[in-house]
Amino acid sequence: MKVIALNGSPKKEGNTYHAIKMVADELEKEGVEVEIIHVGNKLIRGCTACDQCAKNKNEKCILSGDEVNEWIQKVKDAEGIIIGSPVHFSSMGATLKAFLDRAFYVSSVNNGLFRHKVGASVVAVRRSGGVPTFEQLNNYINYAEMLMPASNYWNVIHGAKPGEALKDEEGTQIMSLLGKNMAWLMKLVENGKGSVKEPERVGKTFTNFIR
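Below the sequence we write its predicted structure tokens.
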């Protein structure tokens, strides 16, 4: 089994990386391979709402010049995903959001590429805004019908300078426990294949409030 971890921080080995690594360490102890992709330092355009991915049905965003389509396929081929972000003005990093908007929309209009994978979010923050950012990341996981493991608190760790998060005793416990629970959930899903019937995917019903 494999997990793709998305590091949404501009810093390659900042506190977001350390949060992801704590979860990854527990997964690897259980035999789960983890690949960390550094998203936050890339130049990634946001979704332009062209809807070509829905028309083409080729599992690709029509925008070129970045690694978004390559990463979409990596997530598709994996059993799990970790989304990690720092906090910028009580929100996720802009580059990460640009990627998630495009990737998760491609997934949704191509028969749910990420559906029923195990997904977890982690956040690194200096002081405030961690929980709002955590909730924003979870919106993608929920929308994609992914399965979400929990820890014993919100998945937020604190630190300012790179590496300071390692001194957050409660935060490090949260990340460690999250990794253990994620590995367990992934094994449940894997062992249930063929013996527990998977719910059929239903077409999305769209409504609005203007008639």
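The helical segments are 15-29, 52-56, 68-77, 94-109, 130-143, 169-192.
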